Amino acid sequence: TQQWLMDIILLVKSSRKSIALVSSLEDWQSSLFHLVSHTVEELSAQQTNPANDAEQSESDPETEASAGKRLDLCLELYSTLLGHLLRESGEQALDAVEHAASLQRVCVNGQVVLLLILSVLCADLFDHGTLLEVGSLTAEDWKDIDLEQDSLLLKQSAKLVTDAILSNGTEGLDMNDAIRSWRSLRHLAEVVVALVSKSGLGVVDLFAYNKHRASAIDSITGGLHGIRLAETRLHGVSSEQYMEMIDRAGVS
After folding, report:
1. What is the pLDDT of residues 114-144, one digit of tens each?
2. In this predicted model, what pLDDT tens digit does every residue of 11-63 receive, in sequence order?
């Protein structure tokens, strides 16, 4: 299982044509979501029943380490494909996010699986931005961006989208591309906030104006410019971190 996951990851990262082809397959999300769900359940069982796992390990070559590696590979593949669809923007991006959210209903641990997927998806967007055609932008588009100090592609993408919308399409991106990108990201933010809130966690910290990462307030309108992004790289939840959370929680 691990080998073919690694082969598919190498394939989708080899070219734009390859990732477009794989992400266009109708059932890739359903298949991969169920594989993540099965692996998460396996890891949970190993953490909560160590005695039974020790007895089975002699006859079963799949150890906790290999199951953890499989989970990391699954999440990497999922975030790569879903991130590509989000960068394409439009209805396809919205449908992809909605499909991922709907799949949590078909698995007992679906909410946990979706949280893991969203965490690595956000990390992918931090690393690769939200714009598919970044390479086609001109030097003029990038003139105000310090690539040495502000290297996160998500911030660079956000600046181009914001400039295009505020300038009514005279700066940065084409207006239609900027709006499609903004809508898909807004929809993703709604799904993330809804799931975080449903999990019993809060997002109020993001809007606490006395904190450096809180939303900036427009002094004229009193509205929010948006949540400030951290300067450091965002990491998704790994299998090791997930197992640590299980240990602390004491539940599967």
Report:
1. 989 988 988 888 778 788 765 444 445 545 5
2. 999 988 999 999 999 899 999 999 999 999 998 887 766 555 555 544 454 56
| 193 in Cβ contact with 186 (< 8 Å) | no
Specify whether the CB–CB gap between 8 and 22 falls below 8 A: yes
Q: Are 9 and 73 in contact (CB under 8 A)?
A: yes
Q: What is the model's pTM? A: 0.75
